[in-house]
Amino acid sequence: MMIVLVTIVCLLLGIFIFRKNSDHPNLPPGSFGWPILGETVEFFFGKPENFVTHRMKTYSPDIFKTTILGEKTAVICGPAGHKFLFSNEHKIFTVFRPHSMQALFRSYKKTSSPPNDTNILRQPGFLKPEALMGFLGAMDHITQQQLKIHWEGKHVVKANPFTKTLTLSLACRFFMGIDDNPEWVARLVTRFDDVTLGMHSMVINFPGTVFYRANKAAMAIREELVAVIKERKAALIKGVSMRDILSHMIVVKDATGKCMPEAEIADKIMGLIVAGYSTTATVMTFFMKYIGLNPDVYDKIRTEQLVISSSKKPGEYLNWEDMNKMNYSWNVICETMRHIPPVQGTFREVLTEFTYAGYTVPKGWKVYWTVSTTNMNLRYFPNPDKFNPSRYGEGEVLIPFTYVPFGGGPRMCPGKEYARLAILTFVHNVVNKYRWDVLCPKEKVTGDMMPAPEKGLPIRLHPNGL
User: Fold this and answer.
1) What is the DSSP letter of 449?
2) How sure is the predictor about 277, in pLDDT bands with cuts at 50, 70 and 90?
3) Are 173 and 166 in contact (CB under 8 A)?
4) Is the Cβ–Cβ distance between 72 and 334 less than 8 Å?
5) Residue 447: how many CB atoms within 10 A of its CB?
6) Is residue 110 packed enough to be buried (19+ CB in 10 Å), middle (13-18) or exposed (0-12)?
7) Which of 247-261, 342-356, 424-438 comes out lowest in average pLDDT?
């Protein structure tokens, strides 16, 4: 009886607060949905892009209101919305991490930078061209090594598990200087998958829920990373020279002269790996799908890559000049990301009340930014369902702010160039070694914020004999 009474009181309180906070003139059109839950279920289980597209048609093509993950949210749509958001970062908007993400990354503090904030990458220049040039040889070596271990001599493989293993191996090498530890990487893949899924979920820490699995995985990852941090500290004390992001985090001091706590370092490393792991793997996976289904596109890519291969000495790795010759290959990647965006969208918090498209959005609300309002829009991309890399070819001009897979403005993804190099290195090696058939062309794409093929994208390999 007491449980029922408490439940009723909570619901009534939620309805009261819900109605009170909704009492504001000239809000965007739309629905807040149910008290507390809002429209979270429709957002995730109906897929975010379908959720947004339907409400754009129902309410407004520019902006609408909703409630997602317990937050009153304005969804700003279209190229004008992209421009408005990118132009007002740090003025009207600031980054916002959903409560599930805050709970998973425990060193998060409201008054400080989020644990997966990539500012740590910008300061020491880890993502500058000269730093990436130095990593490119290792990137090529690891990619070749992983293809040999997992695909050589096999006829049928699954693309998605492989690309996850590859991108996590690259991330461990780049962020932490860890190489040649395949067992450790394999153990982490499933855990990072669970964390990624749980970052946008209801904070219900009960066995069987998405968040419970994510929280359990995050604790296991954190434990492993703290062990690595302790080992690295000991090596640095002995004078071992290491130039990677983990080592930098260990030795860097704040304004008071204190080093970063181990738990915070672990959270930041975990956040950085999450940010670059699944998104890059997603692009690689769906590249395999679309190229497998479009042999004419494959032939053009292979022609481009063979020209690069013919200029290399035996055993010579890819270099920066090689990457700049992969123009058509990158156009193919751009079209892949248009069809299957590796990130559906992100959230911002409103710093000060603003007006957009004639509607008022109060301070403290959240804003959801998404690429899905333009990528498949007939106005911006003729025949949008067709896979057509020539959209990005020489002489073609896209309408500004219609194609923004890496965001824009001050918070444009700082790892864009790292991702480009990792993806093109994979393209070069896989196309030179194989042709392939997609065994389930109509395989269902699952996931909400992070899309993935339901069966892992099984493919049949045909070695090129090089």
Assistant:
1) S
2) confident
3) no
4) no
5) 17
6) exposed
7) 247-261
**Which residues, other chains included, contact 109 with Cβ-Cβ below 8 Å and sequence gap of 6+?**
none
Distance CA 236, CA 218 (A): 26
Which of residues 456 and 5 earns the better pLDDT score? 456
413 annotated as a binding-site residue: yes
pLDDT of residue 74: 97
**Contact 65/73 with Cβ under 8 angstroms?**
yes
What's the CA gap between 438 and 297, in Å, rounded? 14
> For residue 1, what pLDDT is reported?
44
How many CA atoms lie less than 13 Å away from 312 in the CB half-sphere?
17
116 half-sphere exposure, CB direction, 13 A CA radius: 23
DSSP, collapsed to helix, strand or coil, labels residue 165 as helix
What is the DSSP secondary-structure string of 379-444?
Answer: TTSSSTTS--GGGGSTT--PPTTS--TT--GGGS-TTHHHHHHHHHHHHHHHHHHEEEEES-TTPP
Nearest in space to 79 (alpha carbons), one of 403, 401, 356: 401
pLDDT of amino acid 12 = 43
End-to-end, the C-alpha distance of the chain in Å comes to: 73
- Average the pLDDT over 394-408 and give the result: 88
392-431: b or e for each residue (b if 16 or more CB lie within 10 Å)? Answer: beeeeeeeebbbbbbbbeebebbbebbbbbbbbbbbbbbb
Q: Of 87, 85, 73, 175, whose CA–CA distance to 124 is shortest?
A: 175
The pLDDT assigned to 403 comes to 93
- Starting at the edge strand found earlier in the chain, the sheet holding 63-68 runs 63-68, 71-76, 366-370, 345-350, 93-95
Cα–Cα distance between 466 and 375 in angstroms, integer? 37
Find out whether 206 and 216 touch, Cβ atoms under 8 Å: no
In the 8-state DSSP scheme, what is residue 207? T
Could you read off the pLDDT of 28-37 as tens digits, one per residue? Answer: 999 999 988 8
Share of the chain above pLDDT 90, in %: 61
Q: What is the rounded average pLDDT for all residues in the chain?
A: 87
Phi first, then psi, for residue 109 (nearest 5°) are: -130, 140
- DSSP conformation letters of 251-308: H-B-TTSPBPPHHHHHHHHHHHHHHHHHHHHHHHHHHHHHHHT-HHHHHHHHHHHHHH
Q: What is the pLDDT of residues 179-235, one digit of tens each?
A: 777 888 888 999 999 999 898 888 889 999 999 999 999 999 999 999 999 999 999
Torsion region of 109: left, alpha or beta (phi above 0 gives left; psi -120 to 50 gives alpha): beta
**Sign of the dihedral defined by the CA atoms of residues 68, 404, 193, 447, in that order:** positive
**Angle, in degrees to the nearest 10, between helices 182-198 and 210-237:** 140
